[in-house]
Amino acid sequence: MEEATSIWMNGELVPWAEARVHVLSHALHYGTAVFEGTRVFETAEGPAVFRLDEHLQRLVRSCRMIGLTLPYTVGELRAATLRTAAANGLGSCYLRHLVYRGYGEMGVAARGCPTDVSIAGWSWGPLLGSSGVRLMTSSWRRNDHTVVPTAAKATGPYLNSVLAKHEALDAGYDEAVLLNAAGYVSECTGANIFLVRDGLLATPPSSAGALAGITQDTVERLAADLGLRAVRQELMRSDLYAADELFVCGTGAGIAHVSSIDGREFDGPGPVTAKLADAYEAAVHGRDERHRHWLTPVSA
């Protein structure tokens, strides 16, 4: 990870090394924070943030779900995001928005803790590479939405993903896919999963514990452009084994084909995955006029 020069914190750009939080920040002890991962891509007109407003709107929803009072409007956060990207001079980068309970008092209630906000950006390539993702089914189950709000992109519940990811890496795989408490496929540790079978795309719904992904939505819209049908439905582990193609998608991962799951091999990337990956690259780099509205120029 390559450090940038500045991080936006509570309304001001501060030097990277000085962007610090107190050791008694509530979020550090109790996981009371939400975040977003967004990407800036190079286009012919200069760097642009992909689907920025959708990411910021999901950030607002996440705050509401876990009871955080967001002290900035979407418009203010949009301006701060562009300011941060421009200040760091990174033509292509990853952005991390974080809203968290800061230092005020200890204890679960956190009535006296302020809400702090930061935006950081750095150069970060696709997290799962391009040679094919080796998946394993984790022994850990995805968080139940009746226990924590899985629709919120909150930091506390991500311990579930950390445990599954470590289990996969320790076993020699690249990524884990988690099942929910009922045994249905949910998602990977930081990405949604799609299967392709007989030309139909299917991905688990949010009711399975999967985050409603913005890249997931992007894939569904690009599939429609290509005349492909995509559905959200409950999937069993065996459905993944019986698929013609598998791929994962997310802001960090982009669209990455799955080369194996639990030792079952796939040739790949398959034709549908390849078409979608090409369409995604065209959209994020501004080469598809139909989706130019998804891009917010950093110069704006």
> How does the helix and strand content classify structurally?
alpha+beta
Mean pLDDT comes to 95
Can you tell me the CATH superfamily of the largest domain?
D-amino Acid Aminotransferase, subunit A, domain 2
Uncertain runs are none
CATH topology name of the largest domain, in short, is D-amino Acid Aminotransferase, Chain A, domain 2
CATH arch. level architecture of the largest domain? Alpha-Beta Barrel
How far is the first residue's CA from the last residue's CA? Answer: 27 Å
Please state the overall shape, judged from the principal axes of the Cα atoms: globular
Strands, total number: 16
Structural Rg: 19 Å
Note the main attributes of this structure.
D-amino Acid Aminotransferase, Chain A, domain 1; 9-stranded mixed beta sheet; 16 strands; 7 helices; D-amino Acid Aminotransferase, Chain A, domain 2; 300 residues; 7-stranded antiparallel beta sheet; 2 domains; single chain; alpha+beta
Task: Tell me the layout of helices and strands.
Elements: E1 6-9, E2 12-15, H1 26-30, E3 33-41, E4 48-50, H2 52-66, H3 74-88, E5 93-101, E6 115-122, E7 133-141, H4 159-170, E8 175-179, E9 185-188, E10 192-197, E11 200-203, H5 214-225, E12 230-232, H6 237-241, E13 245-250, E14 254-261, E15 264-265, H7 271-284, E16 295-297
